[in-house]
């Protein structure tokens, strides 16, 4: 049996970070242990047949592949990993750096960092080529957590679960939890063969199929371990076990097998994998998610106008791609005196006669028919009305009805020498001339015309890659870095600019894009009943202050329907749209009441934690039951309760609140949709109306 010893440990908040070392192989494992767990973690050095999970792994071209039938299913535990041995470790304030070395002259630098006493950790891995020859990487991981399930020395049957969030267009953040047995990860009779669940996303829409998130639960102790990847390109996560009884979670860039990625590192050069956030908690799934969100909050970089989370009006669901100066200014006039601060002109402002908004991107010249006095005149007028003007771009692509589609084709991405998409070309964001064109057409255009808000949309994926000498996956990685550069450039030239991140709704809802933008469009489910379900689920993946949610209002909506729509938008950043000019006085007064109520919710939305409770059907397109999201202020004295009732509700909904004597301060709801009350720490809703919504503010 290999000898395993504790190399080092450090405690951050209620989490112990432990580094274990295999003396014979020289490999090092990173483990997170919550102090509040109901049982002590087993000592790895005392477990028979314990097998460490290397905290950093690479696959070097030419070294042998994964054994145990693993090739094609996983690139972990390969011949390269076996050659990296522990060299040194430095414990600094708020950082641990561990160096592994390969006798051929390669190093892996693993860094774990944190802020103050907050137990959420940023992991980064750097490969260093100290040899005299180039070397090709076919895989590099951003993170690896080992020893998951450290509370039992048996096979851990029916106690380990993997939590993920699935996603598709207009159906983001669908939470699923699978047992290890359901994923077919039971250990074989001899322990031979690789058992791995590898999942992820390929392309430049990082939230497509899955969000870059995973959590592992020990159901018997209630302990969770979790990770979010901060990367807007192809990624992968693996939940696996090998010969050992426990499990591991690892991931990063999608590798050569999964994402067509490889990269040559010249002598003396380095390469750093995308960052990941990791944490653990013994206080439940929502508590784990809140910890991961703490790192997102620490990275916020938003303009001053965002501090009070103002209301947005976007005219997309008003004009549906046909905005005009007359329509926009009529909306601005109607909105005077409301809490709306941003008025956004969406797609279509650039289309010429005979073209469509979704095919004319690329030239970015305002239509003289739609805006006869130019965009600056409209932006100036919007500011006179008291609003910050915003405008829509999809600047990373060219549509086939634009002049740029053919004129600048040599500056667009290709695969095998052919544009990667036949009817939507992608600018090569590492091409100097492409960057110069976008500088003039987008960055400087905003400055010239006085826009203070940009909605950046992105409605197609590059696919698995584009031409690059190393690999298509490396071409794609560099394109993602180019996107980051464009977002940064927008703010460099326009310092107070508010950036909205949109990608056919929520296809870019991941931490690296959150850090570059003020807020993100939650979904393209603009008018659908599942809006509150998607919005509430996203509280576990992103800060509600950055989660822009649509409230599309129409004259045909009765107050109950309006209450459902408006209360849903209060789950995050309130974005009003629709036919506000056609509403009657009663409807418009109700909409204004909702916006004023939202303003009073801002403190708890901005700083707080969320807990989601659902008693509903699994079908989002045929909702039954109800959901309740509790948002608690940071000081614990105030709650915001978001209650959404679907079809076939019970006659009474009872819900247990945190300990205390909670009193209702105020409530937003349509008349006749139920009666709210509290008794101690219990909330009750009597006679809830189907397909209704309400928001209640409570104090203790």
Automatic annotation (TrEMBL):
Molecular function terms, GO-annotated: alpha-galactosidase activity
Coiled coil spans: none
Entries under SUPFAM superfamilies matching the protein: (Trans)glycosidases
A biological-process GO annotation: carbohydrate catabolic process
Entry-linked Pfam families: Melibiase (PF02065)
Native organism taxonomy: Bacteria, Pseudomonadati, Lentisphaerota, Lentisphaeria, Victivallales
Alphabetized InterPro entries for the sequence: Aldolase_TIM (IPR013785), Alpga-gal_N_sf (IPR038417), Alpha-glycosidase_related (IPR050985), GH (IPR017853), Glyco_hydro_36 (IPR002252)
Keyword annotations from UniProtKB, A to Z: Glycosidase, Hydrolase
Name of this protein: Alpha-galactosidase
